[in-house]
Specification:
The structure is a single chain. The longest helix is centred in the middle third of the chain and has 13 residues, at 85-97. The mean pLDDT is 96. A hairpin with a 5-residue loop joins strand 1 and strand 2. The strands form two sheets. This protein has an eight-stranded antiparallel sheet. Helix 2 (62-71) crosses helix 3 (73-82). With 250 residues, it is an alpha+beta fold. The protein has six helices and 13 strands. It has a single domain, classed as Jelly Rolls.
């Protein structure tokens, strides 16, 4: 098994900012292996500042994160793939093919490798050398978990949210969709620096239900408001598990 994100069938909406959804993004067996090797809850750090959320990443509880990834072959392999130039370039190329040019060499990356001149390869290197990718293990308790409305930190350029769930594990009545928002007070729409809002300050425009092996992909903008509303699985011990992948400036 080899990791490979399949984003060629992603479907985008462009208002109020670009956000897309892709289904069956990883081979079934590989996705199942990642799901079964999900880290134990005690490795996570509770992040009250973000809502009712647990996180394990290079930023949150990093020593536990790196130890677990190194010790778990399928996650170690996936970590290497996400860190690769190939993954970053593929994501930029996907965006460019959907009219989303971030000035990162998408036009050059869209060309066949053999057709690129040395000068083109140099241009790609210059435009992407200051980019890096990382992923966060994230969990929200079905009983009241949530992520407050926000737009993401300025250094984040592209976010991919991969749902991690066994078949039948998540009850759709709990909620859990990734919500696209706008402020009720439109004068507060410009939020490049990522100030958080309360839920009563925003209006939900659309939502992508939480489903297995699905990726929600969006571009950081001044108004890329999104959230996960409080989950409704009262008494449930199930977690809404996602892998949040960020391509960002170093």
């Amino acid at each position: 098994m080899q990791p490979s994100f399949q984003l060629d069938k992603v479907e985008f909406q462009y208002e109020p900012y670009p956000v897309g959804i892709a289904r069956n993004v990883l081979p079934h067996d590989y996705y199942s292996a990642l799901t079964e090797a999900w880290p134990a809850t005690e490795l996570f750090e509770f992040k009250k500042v973000l809502g009712n959320k647990y996180s394990l990443s290079e930023v949150n509880n990093p020593s536990q994160y790196h130890r677990y990834v190194r010790a778990t072959p399928v996650w170690s392999e996936f970590h290497g793939y996400i860190k690769s130039r190939d993954f970053i370039h593929k994501t930029i190329r996907t965006l460019y093919s959907h009219h989303l040019d971030l000035g990162l060499g998408g036009q050059l990356l869209a060309e066949e490798v053999g057709e690129r001149s040395f000068l083109d390869r140099l241009k790609i290197h210059r435009r992407t050398r200051n980019l890096s990718a990382r992923f966060e293990f994230s969990m929200l308790p079905a009983d009241g978990g949530f992520i407050k409305p926000h737009t993401d930190a300025p250094k984040k350029l592209i976010t991919l949210v991969l749902s991690i769930s066994r078949p039948g594990e998540w009850d759709q009545s709990f909620g859990g969709g990734t919500e696209v928002l706008k402020p009720r007070d439109i004068t507060r729409n410009y939020n490049y620096m990522n100030k958080q809002f309360e839920f009563d300050q925003v209006e939900t425009l659309s939502a992508f239900p939480f489903e297995p092996n699905q990726c929600v992909l969006f571009v950081k903008t001044f108004n890329s408001w999104h959230s996960v509303s409080p989950l409704r699985g009262m008494g449930s011990k199930v977690m809404r598990k996602t892998l949040t992948i960020n391509i960002e400036t170093k």
